[in-house]
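pasting for the record
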Amino acid sequence: MSESAVNGMLVVGKITGCYGIKGWLKVHSYTDPPENFLGYTGWHLRRGGTLEPVEFDSGKRHGKGLVAHIKGVDERSLAEAYTGLEIAVSENVLPPLDQGDYYWRDLQGLQVWCQSDKEKVLLGTVDYLIETGANDVLVVKACDGSIDEQERLIPYVQGDVVTRVDLKEAVLEVNWFLEE
């Protein structure tokens, strides 16, 4: 799941437009699979810097995305005011993961270390992840103390490339080659 956290709230989608004349909205879900968005409760919309509670009373898959209806918003003219707003839920509603699985947000900000000859070197920190289909990719950006100023794209392949993740230490270790 691709997501960003705001004050204990997790952004799980965005309203991208209106659908029809009865107040339905097009929703771009950040969850995987997209339908997981519909299983949450306690939604909030981010309008400027504030979060306001909202209740979706219906939703369904439509084409490549979702459409959903906000309770009490029964006309297109009312629905238009919601276009462009992000949709968030409390981080507490996320299901627990199996041992060794992580939400993307948990990996962001971790220091990425690599073994080079006889010493460990800091490559940078995880800035964000990219979903490629085959496997996710860590985007590692330079930070204070890193070996150089290079941005690196490192496949998130547990065992082969990613050898250790320690959230308490905020460290991710990789088996990765260093460019000369």
